[in-house]
Structures are given as structure tokens and as C-alpha cells.
Amino acid sequence: MKPNSFARLVAGLSDDEVKSLEHEWLLWARKEQLAPKGDWTTWVLMGGRGSGKTRAGAEWVRQLANGNLGQNPVEQIALVSETMSEARAVMVEGPSGILSIGPIAERPKFDRTRNMLVWENGAKGMLMSASEPDRFRGPQFGAAWCDEVSKWPNAEAAWDMLQFGLRLGDMPRQMVTTTPKPTRLIKRLLNDKRCVFTRMRTRDNAANLASSFFKDIVGRYEGTRLGRQELDGELIEDMPNALWSRSGIEACRVRKKPAMQRVLVSVDPAVSANANSDACGIIIAGRTERGALVMADETLKPAPPLRWARTVVTAYHRFGADAVVAEVNQGGDLVTNLIAQIDPNVPVIQVRATRSKWVRAEPVAALYERGLIEHCSGLNELEDEMCAFGPNGLADGHSPDRVDALVWALTTLLLDDTSPRARTL
Questions:
Q1: Hey, is 290 helix, strand or coil?
Q2: Which residues of 48-201 form beta strands (DSSP E)?
Q3: Ordered structural domains, the chain, with CATH
Q4: What is the C-alpha separation between 202 and 276, in angstroms, rounded?
Q5: What is the pTM of this model?
Q6: DSSP string of 320-357?
Q7: Taking the mean position of all CA atoms in its chain, how far away is CA 416?
Q8: What tens digit of pLDDT does each residue of 385-419 get?
């Protein structure tokens, strides 16, 4: 609505009526935040960070539960996120979640013991974890809101189980809100004729975001490959001639953690610790019977020396590691001395780079192609950097600190037959 038209509307209303306008979603929503018209089964809303995806999803659920979409109230609604804690923290209790929107008197009650929202009219919203697809067996729904499907582990299995439960009412529908990534599930939905797509940019929601966010984050990443995905909501395919692809990484996702023969914490130290410096890449990986498993990413930014040293030592003990692998091109013995200050009993393998990042990474990429490397879930930022890593040695214009640490870890675990105190690559 145009400002002049809105002013004329408000001028003729009482104070209570003006206050009620706060909750009129059709008045405040941007066009792309409203459910599209037509005969569809799945609405995929792909948006950048802070673009208003969560608010759109929460409002859609509110309208379904209250019967405000030209149909009777939907009595059973699935609310699905990667984990139960994320469903509660974002979809339900977050600043744009279901419990934060609409008139207070009309908001549902949250039964935390059953992980269920209950509206006054009896409509229910059941929280579900995509990490446990077998729990989708049994419950049935008339609608579903699925949040951040691009980061669901075993996404296709969870999605398929959910479809079997969408069997109540005349037209069961589901909404997907996600930052786009070219996962197998997203690509599958792209080819589904019953699926409609909407895209939103972070900049479109500038009025509701902190100005510092635009200065520090949007200004830094806008226009880059990562920014197009995370800010503009674009579905970015793999880079030409990239060492790693999304599909290749998805294919190496581990379902059951194998036994570890040797575990390393690999660290690529940052030269400085100011806000504009590189991150300190910290990757934990282990050798298995058939290859290696990348277990965790503890990368820090900013990374003051004592902070990353403590993080490395903590990871060493938490994962029961055998040693720390540290690139010492920039710091020399400083890296070893820092770790020794925290715990002198932690063994450190010093490695020194003599070739380009791309050349060092090629043998490791070959290990992936041979199916020797597996990934645990939760490595999204590492995997983003791997797929954006180019022949110029950069990932979206930035130093690939996570990739550097990954390369050193896997090289030491699988490609280095010796165990010297220091080696070069």
C-alpha cells in the first residue's frame, strides 16, 4: 500500500483499530511472502539470510490454523526443521516464529512436553526433526512447514516419509523456507510440476534489519558467489572445473560413524586477529578402515592466538585425537609454543606449504573421487568453501582457510607414509 493511501486509512480508525493493523499480515507482507495462487502442492520460498522467510512461514501456518486461506482450519500441521531444538528456537519461539506473531490472545499454547502447538480452535502444530525420518511414520497432517531443507541430513529420506503423512483434508500442502543450495532434494523439487518457487533477497527486507548488518555482511559479500546464494537467494550450481561438487559431497555423507584408527586436529592459523583478517581453519578428521572421515569444523573468525590455541586443544581432548597438524608458514614455532602454553602434552606435527593451495588440494580431491572420504553432517560452511574453491586459490574471493586445514588433515592421514616432525607439501 502506498504511504498516502495508508495515511488516509489510518486517519479514519480508532486507536484500537490502528493497533490491530499491526497483525494484518496481508497489509504488511511483501508480495513474494504471500502464498502464490493456483493449484500447487509445494511452495518453495528460497531467500537470503534475513529476507523474511521465517516470518512468511509462520504467518502461513497461522492462516492455516485459523482458517484464513479460504478453507476450514487445518487441524494437523507438521513443523519440520533439521533438529527439534532448531524447530523450537526458530520456527516457534524465534523473533519471527509462530509465538511472536498475531494478536496475543489468538496465539497458540506451546506444550513443550509433547513438542506441540495448540490453538484455541483445536488446531495443532507438531514439531518434527528431519534428522529422525522414521518418526514421520504414523502421524498424519493436512499441511507442513519445512524449514531450511538444504541443510537437512538425509533430506530425501525425511522428505519422502513426510509425504506419506500428508493425507488429511481436501488439499494437503507444504511450504519450504530455505537458503538455496543445489542439493539433490532441491533439484528434485525444481523438476516437480506441482511445485512453485519464489525467491527473496536480503536487501528486500532492509527496513527490518540492522544497518550494521548491511555494512559488515551485505557490503562484504554482495555480488560474490556466496553472496548470491546467501543474500540474493539464488540457486548456485557448481563452479566449472571445481575440485569438488555438491553432488559429490552429498554422496560421501556418512550415516553411521565408523571406528577411528587415528584422529587429527588440523589447524591453519590466521596471521592476525582483527575483524578483516582470515579465519583460523580448524578441522577434525580421522582415518578409518576404508579411508577417512571428516568429523567437525571448529573454524574461528576472528581468531586471537590464545583463543584458537584453546579451541584446538579442547578439540584434541574432546575427539580423543592423536595429534595436532599445524601449518607453520606464517608462525613457525609460535604455533607449537602457543599450543604448548595451553597443554604441553599435545603433540604437534608441523607442516609447511611450498606449493599453491590448488596443487596441494588436487591429491585430496582425488581421494574424494575414489570414494575414500566421508563427511559427518553439520559441515555446511566447509562444504560451501570446498565448492567455491577455484584455481586462483580463493573461495569467493577469500582465503579458503577451512579447505587448507582439511587438505593438511587428509594429506597427513592418507597420503603421508612418514611421520616426521615437519613436512612440506
A1: coil
A2: 76-81, 109-111, 116-118, 124-129, 143-147, 173-178, 195-200
A3: 22-230 (3.40.50.300), 246-424 (3.30.420.240)
A4: 22
A5: 0.62
A6: T-SEEEEE-TTTTHHHHHHHHHH-TTS-EEEEE--S-H
A7: 33
A8: 898 898 888 887 788 999 999 999 999 999 985 44
